[in-house]
Amino acid sequence: MVASAQTGDFAPPVEDERLYRIVDVLDEIAEETGKSIPQIALNWLLGRSTVSSVLIGARNEAQLRDNLGAAGWQLDEEQTRRLDEASRVTPPYPYYPYWNGQFAERNPVPV
Q1: Which residues form a coiled coil (predicted)?
Q2: Any idea what DSSP says for residue 15?
Q3: Which SS3 state, helix, strand or coil, does residue 82 take?
Q4: d(CA 109, CA 104)
Q5: Which of 102, 100, 43 is nearest to 73 (CA)?
Q6: How many of the other CB atoms lie within 10 Å of CB of 38?
Q7: What is the pLDDT along the chain (111 residues), one digit of tens a residue?
Q8: pTM recorded for the entire structure
Q9: HSE on the CB side for 111, CA within 13 Å?
Q10: Of 59, 69, 80, 110, which one's alpha carbon is 20 to 30 angstroms from that of 103?
Q11: Is the dihedral of CA 22, 27, 32, 36 positive or negative?
Q12: Residues 16-25: contacts with CB within 8 Å, 24+ apart?
């Protein structure tokens, strides 16, 4: 089954199981840290070297304040690893042969 929503019509489909897996890890880390799920997700994005900026679209002041609480702290290495693992996808061709670590010299890990 693929998740659908009004905005889902404008983006590639995402399998429900993948979404549930990611949300489960976000929920676990939120419990561990006392932070909200949106704060965990935004903090994880802010910590990724391949993300240059994060845009938030708060509907109200409370949501804006919660989102701003994603800054000024960091997930630990284990939490980051768990989110990376839960959200990992197989890259499309021609990149997928490199996904399992083959030919690492031709596909170095991003810094």
Answers
A1: none
A2: B
A3: helix
A4: 8
A5: 43
A6: 17
A7: 555 556 667 777 888 999 999 999 999 999 999 999 999 999 999 999 889 999 998 999 999 999 999 999 999 999 999 999 999 887 777 666 655 555 555 555 665
A8: 0.74
A9: 0
A10: 80
A11: positive
A12: 18/87, 18/89, 21/86, 22/83, 22/86, 22/87, 24/86, 25/82, 25/83, 25/86
Give the number of other Cβ atoms within 10 Å of residue 83's Cβ: 23
**CA 105 vs CA 58, 84, 91, 98, 108: distances in Å:** 42, 22, 17, 10, 6
Structure tokens at 107: 């596909």
Residue type, 19: L
Find out whether 102 and 37 touch, Cβ atoms under 8 Å: no
